[in-house]
Design goal:
463 residues, mainly alpha, 18 helices, 74% helix
């Protein structure tokens, strides 16, 4: 009653409050749809990669090295990330790419599911891997089509989805493996259809944020002012770029080299040989399989570990869980790392690699304190996952937020293509590190096992 009388006395202010409420609700709805869309993009695009790795023991004969699965699961993705941004010219057709990624993933998983020959399954894995590499690059490039404020959040949601893929993929195969390869992998083959559905029916277009921001006449806080201006400029650029599209604007090889050169040390090296990939996957594939201890007879750990073979899945679970939370740091509202601190996670991971190698070969603690050693390995792998996740999401976030080259500011279409190229061009650094680590992992595991046997620890030979 009192509220209605106030509205009757101050109709203009009441209308402003109503518009403000509608604007706030609309903004939250758009943000939610954006977040869910990019989270699904990251989750579905990466989950097949995890399912393939989890199913490696079931996909190849016992006599076949399991490393060949890891190789076929990453090499085609590297080819996609290396070739596509550098050789593609002109505008990106996102709808066509996403539909193509869906089709390739579906076909690849069907080949794996319904062909029992080794070479056919490896071919299917390669097809799905190529699709995953192309998809990751495409969705990161898609984030640059939004204003920087919205695009930064999109990168955070996508990274969170890729982190969740590790947990979801491992859990899915744990549940599906009892159905056999044909049924289990066949069921997972339908997952890629979520990508085009999310793109066409859920994802808000960049213009939606501009329309939402211009629909309100209420005052906005000072820290939101830059966001609103950025959205308006993005809409203006979009209109102008449609006009420029009639004149085919394409980045030349010289333009691309000019853009890549400053990113080599600033972004690519921290993402490749150091942080996310090389050190991380050397630990996971080469060192973690040798971090074995006797089966505990009491305590909490005895309820988790029932055989020596349980240690490796445990370390993978710890790693995937911490990667998920750290890749979700931006979507959870945590502050990003400054650009000058991007190499820090790599340095920490290098120390962790040395400690875990020493633990495997010699032992950090006496043999009568194995519980302490298990806890120490648990902590180190947790830190490894946190560092890897932070490196991934912050590198791509920083690239998304970079200002355009002053020489290109006269052309909105050139600015758009440069942003897309820059964020798509560094993905090969990540995959190169993983590929190199998968090659190094086999001799690393063998040498560490020899070192354990030499000191009278034979657990690695019993797996």
């Amino acid at each position: 009653m009192h509220q209605n009388s106030l509205r009757a006395q101050y109709p203009l202010q009441a209308n402003r409050y109503s518009l403000g409420d509608a604007y706030s609700a609309g903004k939250k709805r758009l943000s939610l749809k954006l977040g869910v869309s990019f989270f699904l993009f990251g989750l579905i695009n990466n989950v097949l990669y995890v399912i393939i790795l989890s199913a490696a023991l079931d996909l190849v004969p016992p006599s076949t090295p399991k490393g060949i699965i890891a190789f076929c699961n990453i090499a085609p993705a590297l080819i996609a990330k290396l070739g596509w941004p550098y050789f593609l010219k002109g505008r990106i057709r996102y709808a066509r790419r996403i539909v193509a990624c869906c089709a390739l993933s579906f076909i690849g998983m069907l080949v794996v599911a319904f062909h029992e020959s080794l070479y056919s399954r490896l071919l299917g894995i390669c097809i799905a891997s190529f699709s995953s590499g192309l998809g990751e690059m495409t969705f990161l490039q898609l984030s640059t089509t939004y204003s920087r404020s919205v695009g930064g959040r999109s990168v955070g949601y996508f990274a969170s989805g890729t982190g969740a893929a590790g947990i979801v993929g491992a859990f899915m195969w744990w549940e599906l493996r009892g159905l056999g390869v044909s049924t289990g992998v066949g069921i997972s083959a339908v997952l890629p259809f979520i990508l085009p559905l999310a793109y066409f029916f859920l994802l808000p277009r960049p213009a939606a944020f501009t329309h939402q921001s211009s629909a309100s006449y209420t005052l906005v806080p000072a820290d939101d002012l830059e966001t609103e201006i950025d959205d308006d400029l993005s809409a203006q650029d979009d209109v102008e770029s449609r006009v420029e599209h009639k004149v085919a604007v394409r980045l030349s090889a010289a333009d691309k080299w000019r853009l890549v050169k400053p990113m080599l040390l600033k972004y690519m090296l921290p993402l490749c040989e150091l942080s996310l990939s090389f050190l991380e996957y050397t630990i996971n594939q080469g060192v973690a399989p040798t971090l074995l201890f006797t089966v505990p007879s009491h305590g909490l750990i005895s309820k988790i570990i029932h055989s020596t073979r349980d240690y490796y899945p445990l370390w993978q679970l710890v790693y995937q869980t911490t990667v998920f939370f750290s890749r979700s740091s931006i979507s959870l509202g945590l502050k990003t790392l400054p650009a000058h601190l991007l190499p820090a996670p790599a340095i920490i991971q290098f120390v962790i690699l040395l400690l875990l190698v020493f633990e495997s070969a010699v032992g950090l603690l006496p043999e009568d304190r194995e519980v302490g050693s298990i806890f120490l390995v648990f902590v180190l792998i947790s830190i490894e996952g946190v560092c890897g996740g932070l490196a991934y999401v912050n590198v791509f976030y920083c690239i998304n937020q970079e200002q355009p080259d002053p020489a290109s500011t006269h052309s909105p279409e050139v600015i758009k293509q440069e942003r897309e190229f820059k964020i798509g061009s560094i993905g090969f650094a990540d995959s190169s590190g993983i590929l190199l680590a998968s090659i190094l992992a086999v001799p690393t595991e063998m040498e560490l096992c020899r070192a354990q046997v030499a000191r009278g620890k034979y657990l690695c030979q019993g797996l």
